[in-house]
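Re: that backbone. Tokens:
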């Protein structure tokens, strides 16, 4: 039987890279789309054996080129997402217009599955542009591709993430650490491998669930996450609760930077718990338990942020 061709947008990111490895290991063919082959080609190339992976450079709004790629795909997976806006790379374009366009093209060419990554905990965050754009993206997709599968993950971590690695980098540098909303916001972190295995399963099997909230096995507050990271790094830091108006002033300056540490919109989003809404099934509800625990997994890669780096490494 001809192997399925899986077309991935946003393939060079954390989830994309892990997913390429999982898909090609199962003998599925992957076409990975990137905006910049020179910058991302070497990362993508090493994720699969030759013959299983094609890498294509494309502007995601070059819809003629995108349609040519979609025509040849059996499965289309959209992993493109941004955390802050810069010029035309704004939330509306990236989280609404682009998924609406590709889901429509997928429907037109009878692509058998369209899988889209949205986000957890966005329904109540009406004052966050990020959250509302992700939500509007879900609605737009559903209108264009009725059976699209939409996954809504809590925070996804792995050695390839921008979350634990960024936080450990910051904790390493600064003696004090700011806590927004007292660090009480709840998350249910999930390991990247777990969500990639779920996507793999959804490609290979039929499902009745069209929206799945994806969560890890533990509920942790932001403060608990930072405490766990500090414990793993064998470091102590002073927590400073930051009044939101000061956080906003700081974020106003940060968001001028090309890659802001935090934006005003992210501060708004941090107010809302990142836990299941109760409106949709979670991966646990549908029998897909994610078992990898935050502390156990981060322990495997946190050693470079310890005082003695690789010499502190325990055997796993
Ligand atoms: N990681 C999490 O904790 C988390 C949580 C909830 C939801 N999600 C969602 O899950 C999806 C994948 O997450 P991830 O962590 O793998 O993301 P990621 O590491 O940030 O990667 C996203 C990819 O999207 C592409 N991209 C970014 N901006 C783009 C733009 N303006 N135009 C075209 N492509 C662009 C980039 O690929 P190129 O540079 O190669 O073009 C990038 O590799 C995203 O939609 C994200 O919102 C993630």
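Recovered sequence:
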């Amino acid at each position: 039987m001809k192997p399925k061709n899986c077309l991935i947008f946003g393939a060079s990111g954390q989830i994309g890279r892990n997913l390429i490895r999982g898909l090609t290991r199962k003998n599925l063919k992957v076409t990975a789309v990137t905006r910049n082959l020179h910058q991302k080609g070497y990362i993508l190339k090493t994720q699969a054996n030759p013959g299983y992976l094609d890498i294509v450079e494309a502007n995601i709004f070059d819809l003629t080129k995108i349609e040519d790629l979609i025509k040849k795909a059996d499965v289309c997976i959209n992993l493109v997402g941004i955390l802050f806006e810069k010029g035309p790379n704004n939330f509306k374009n990236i989280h609404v217009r682009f998924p609406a366009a590709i889901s429509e093209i997928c429907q037109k060419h009878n692509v058998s599955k369209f899988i889209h990554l949205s986000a957890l905990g966005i329904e109540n965050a009406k004052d966050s542009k990020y959250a509302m754009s992700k939500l509007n993206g879900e609605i737009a997709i559903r209108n264009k591709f009725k059976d699209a599968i939409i996954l809504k993950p809590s925070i996804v971590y792995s050695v390839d993430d921008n979350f634990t690695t960024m936080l450990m980098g910051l904790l390493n540098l600064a003696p004090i650490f700011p806590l927004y909303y007292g660090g009480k916001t709840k998350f249910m972190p999930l390991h990247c491998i777990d969500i990639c295995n779920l996507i793999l399963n959804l490609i290979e099997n039929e499902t009745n669930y069209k929206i799945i909230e994806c969560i890890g096995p533990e509920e942790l507050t932001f403060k608990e996450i930072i405490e766990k990271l500090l414990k793993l790094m064998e470091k102590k830091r002073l927590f400073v609760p930051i009044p939101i108006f000061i956080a906003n002033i700081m974020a106003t300056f940060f968001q001028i930077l090309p890659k802001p540490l935090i934006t005003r919109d992210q501060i708004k989003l941090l107010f809302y718990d990142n836990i299941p809404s109760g409106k949709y099934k979670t991966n646990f509800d549908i029998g897909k338990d994610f078992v990898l625990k935050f502390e156990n997994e981060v322990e495997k890669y946190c050693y470079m942020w310890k005082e003695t780096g690789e010499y502190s490494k325990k055997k796993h």
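Residues 10, 12-16, 34-36, 40, 60, 79-82, 89, 94, 117, 119, 153, 155-156, 163 surround NAP (CB under 6 Å). The radius of gyration is 20 Å.
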